[in-house]
Design goal:
The structure is a homodimer. The first copy, chain A, has four domains: about 160 residues, MoaB/Mog-like domain (Molybdenum Cofactor Biosythetic Enzyme, Chain A); about 45 residues, Molybdopterin biosynthesis moea protein, domain 2 (Alpha-Beta Complex), CATH 3.90.105.10; about 90 residues, Beta Complex (Molybdopterin biosynthesis moeA protein, domain 3); about 70 residues, Beta Barrel (Beta-clip), CATH 2.40.340. By secondary structure, chain A is an alpha/beta fold. Chain A has seven helices and 26 strands. Chains A and B meet through helix 2, strand 15, helix 3, strand 22 and helix 7 of A and helix 2, strand 15, helix 3, strand 22 and helix 7 of B.
């Protein structure tokens, strides 16, 4: 009987999440670090901003000097020159005076607020201020953005463009990050031919190569395509050997338990250990997870949809661990189902969906199609997980949808 | 008075969306096309799959021969060999017979269903089938995934890894796509220094260079950093000239209307036309949009948060138009506000937020901070738009949140 020992999705994830891995680090230029994972806590060694700056163009003042100022009753302040941007302001503001200041320039000693210059009128050597402000208004103080000694980014965070801004602010031009994992990708199947060949009867072109490779590339991995292997032990083992230097090996196709179960046999013959073969999910059941040369190896179903769903659910979390990502983000939303989704009890089911927004909210439309239908994936922007313990969802229910990455 | 002619966000977007652009195309390898925009409708020139295939390992049968079969009353079929994967199946299935077939192999002529082999028992030269199936079960028919003559991908679509799978299925190894726009990026301000320099009093490091460049790179653009310009017309005009070959120019900083409005003056002196200067938004008000050498040019606020919000709201839509993207996706979700958001009537306001998911749903927590505070952006995963006509949102309201790209 097939898949007698099929595991649950939860059991599969536990095995995957406890697979022992080791991480390596390197120093990379800030400019190349977007999407990479930082390997150390970043502790600020200076205040950002390092000095009090004006947030607007206007006049630096002592707030007490303009108390109660308004259009019809302006405060008159003596004009004492300008605080030039990019330079140190050495002047000290005295009572009853003001200093012109541009956005970003240094606040002069003694000033405790900046009046936007639309609330001012020049009057010879003086300036009329037509509005009162509160203490500290339009000033950003030293350390108000980042305080010396604070942890600004935690080890294990995937760097966004905004994080690069934080690193730039602190002058960190070189970033200590985890190395990108090297992932070996093999397509398997006697029927599979490269994309640029014309299929003879019985043959089809290699789809999974392109979907897997480009999904993984988006996560900052080095994916190396090792070619197509036929359904025979010599060819499979040759391809696995070629991927031996990789941190993870993925084989698409050849994972179903037919008469010729060459994939698990080949892994075993090379000294590997099958950790599971078969998960109670749909689609994606014949997924294999094994340890070979102390590295994780996945056998993914050949059907393009099954392959992508198994990749999304089981492979991506391990890829992210191999990248050092401590807290992977999963973009999601909620929407109202436009049709029923039937599902079997005891199986975790993945339903790819279209997501539509209008004024009223978000609607979610399942794309039902066989697991080999790649065109249905192309229209999907996300997927629903129907838990094992649930027999589907009903039309009108508000369901969680995960975006594809 | 400042920004007397400030436009609304809607007016700004109308000007941006009607800016005349021209698109150019090129042929790129399939392997490099993920994230690029396709420049033609892709019409299938063949059926996918090209032949009837089995979705499982099992026995190809005539469904009428196993009508009513069950564990206790199996149907007996004569075993007639195997349909080998990757080869043409030339045999025709006759009444009362079955042919072994692997997942993906060609269905023999005459068969109209496949019984999974867990519902079979070998009996010498025959096979007992212990379950009945419906017509067509476990078969994918020619054209069921993609039908000859159908439009599988529309011109103007951004290619996902799944779309690459569709193109691979059809044997399209070269993709006719729009060229990546070349975007010139300039940082401006006398106070701005490169990240690897130590700031003197009054100076700060260039943050916007890293945030803008890496946000735009994610959208498949070629961004060329043209350096830092000082706040003087010669330097600004020199930098703009250097970016003349680009399809779009972005300048961060120098857009506020201080006493020295060198940016708009420089654009005008080079023959450009200011389309708007100032938008009724917060943060991001001093944004400039202009036409120079028939190309769009944005002057973005120098404050890092204002800069990113103006980029997100106004620049990204035009970048996507320049990429040929007809229908840009905007990932969003809805969540319950954990605090009030005050906002002024008449101003479109952007509030960056943290998004948290738990069993109960999604909560959205505003990150209030001054517009120059980069560390608040680093913690944000999305933002809320408070419309002009609304004076904020209240705690407990269910609000739409856009994910940062």
């Amino acid at each position: 009987m097939e898949f007698l020992k099929a595991v649950t999705a939860k059991e599969a994830l536990e095995m995957i999440n406890s697979f022992p891995i080791s991480l390596h680090t390197e120093v990379i230029p800030l400019d190349e670090s977007s999407g990479r994972i930082i390997a150390e806590d970043i502790i600020a060694h200076e205040n950002i901003p390092p000095f009090s700056r004006s947030l607007v163009d206007g006049f630096a003042v002592k707030v007490k000097d303009i108390h109660g100022a308004k259009e019809t009753n302006p405060a008159l302040l003596i004009y004492k020159g300008e605080s030039r941007i990019g330079e140190e302001t050495k002047e000290t503001l005295e009572d009853g005076c003001c200093i012109y200041i541009s956005t970003g320039a240094m606040i002069p000693e003694g000033a405790d607020g900046v009046v936007m210059h639309e609330y001012s009128r020049p009057m010879g050597d003086a300036v009329e201020i037509t509005r009162t402000i509160h203490k500290g208004e339009n000033i950003i103080f030293p350390g108000e953005d980042i305080r010396t000694g604070s942890i600004v980014l935690k080890q294990g965070k995937r760097l966004t463009p905004f994080d690069l801004g934080v690193l730039a602010a602190l002058g960190i031009a070189d970033v200590w990050s985890y190395k990108k994992p090297k992932i070996g990708l093999i397509s398997s199947g006697d029927e599979i031919i490269p994309v640029d060949q014309k299929p003879a009867p019985g043959q089809i072109r290699d789809i999974n190569h392109y979907t897997i490779l480009n999904m993984l590339r988006k996560t900052c991995s080095d994916v190396i395509f090792m070619g197509i292997t036929g359904d025979n032990p010599e060819d499979i083992q040759g391809h696995l050997h070629a991927a031996r230097d990789c941190h993870m090996i993925l084989v698409s196709g050849g994972s179903s338990k037919g008469e010729k179960d060459y994939m698990t046999e080949s892994i075993k013959q090379l000294g590997g250990k099958i950790l599971f073969h078969g998960v109670n999910i749909k689609p994606g059941k014949p997924t294999i997870f094994a340890s070979l040369w102390e590295k994780p190896i996945f056998g993914l179903p050949g059907h393009p949809v099954s392959c992508i769903m198994a990749l999304t659910r089981f492979v991506l979390p391990l890829v992210k661990r191999l990248q050092g990502d401590n807290n992977p983000e999963k973009k999601q939303t909620k929407g109202v189902l436009t049709t029923n989704i039937p599902s079997s009890y005891g199986i975790e089911e993945y339903v790819r969906v279209e997501i539509d927004y209008d004024n009223k909210g978000c609607t979610v439309t399942p794309l039902f199609a066989k697991s080999s239908v790649i065109s249905s994936l192309s229209r999907a922007s996300g997927y629903i997980i129907v838990p094992e313990a649930k027999e589907g969802f009903e039309r009108g229910e508000n369901v969680v949808v995960y975006y594809f990455e």
